[in-house]
Structure formats: C-alpha cells, structure tokens
Amino acid sequence: MSSGISKNLRQRVAVRSGQRCEYCRIVQTLLQHKHEPDHIRARQHGGQTVFENLALACMWCNRRKGPNIASFDPLTGQLVLLFNPRTQLWHEHFEWDGAVIRPLTAEARVTINLLGINDEERLADRQMLLDVGLLY
C-alpha cells in the first residue's frame, strides 16, 4: 500500500516509471484507478519508504503483490525472488507477445504468476488496448 508516502515522493516515483506500472507496464492514463507506489521490500520485511525501495504499480499488481518478496516458481517449484524494478531491467525478464507478457526468467515466471499479470480479465483489457493502438 502507499500510505505515509509524501506527494513529492509519489511524483518522483511516477516520473521515474514514465507513468507505467513497473510490473505489467500498463500506462496510468489508460486506467480509472491511479497507480500507487509499491514497497518493493515491504515495510514488514524491513523495507523503508525511500525512493530506491519504491516502484510504481497499478492497483491490480500492487494488491496481488502485497508484502511478498518471493514465490514458488510454477515450473521448477523453487523459491525465487520476485522481479525487482530497481535492480533488474524489465526487457531482460519479460517480453510482449501481443497482449500477453511472456517470462524470460524464473523471476519473471513467479512475478507473472503471483501478480496475475496474464489472468483472463487483464489479458482482455490489454487486448482491447492493443486493438485500438494504445498498448506499448
């Protein structure tokens, strides 16, 4: 969640991300709900409310991520850290395949799975945006 984050810090996080969710890459202006600063390392795990520990997240990604920092890889069953937008590059872990976001790494697989990035409803929304030329 984003409580306790100053307006200035929220703006800096939004500008750094290009107004995109740093997990599913959806642009803020295309959604009804404002994107939120997400604590990459949750406060309950010792994460601080500082610029370096925040990522801009859409409502869906932020709610599904919650305080999680890792999950079990659906392919290998191994415990794997989630994608970290502060230390990793999105294009090295994910790729677009139409409206689908494909994983390139274990971190991407657990992130896509835990955040429900390719759930049916989210795919339908992205496909609609793609069809009218608003995705990417």
Outline of the structure:
This protein is α+β, with helices and mostly antiparallel strands and 136 residues long. 32% of the residues lie in helices and 16% in strands.
Spell out the key features of this protein.
136 residues, alpha+beta, two-stranded antiparallel sheet, two-stranded antiparallel ribbon, 6 strands
Radius of gyration: 14 Å
Strand content: 15-25%
* Uncertain ranges: none
Oligomer: single chain
* Mean pLDDT over all positions: 94
Structural class: alpha+beta
Shape: globular
The number of helical segments is 5
> Fraction of residues in helices?
25-40%
Quantity of strands, as a count: 6
Along the chain, the helix and strand elements come as: HEEHEEHEEHH
N- to C-terminal separation? 26 Å
Main sheet overview = 2 strands, antiparallel
Which strand order do you get reading across the main beta sheet? 1-2
Describe the structure.
The chain has 136 residues and is an alpha+beta fold. The protein has helices at residues 7-17, 59-65, 90-93, 106-115, 120-131; strands at residues 36-39, 54-57, 70-72, 79-81, 94-97, 100-103. A two-stranded antiparallel sheet has the order 1-2. It is globular and about 40 Å long. The two termini are 26 Å apart. 31% of the residues are buried. The model has no long low-confidence stretch (mean pLDDT 94).
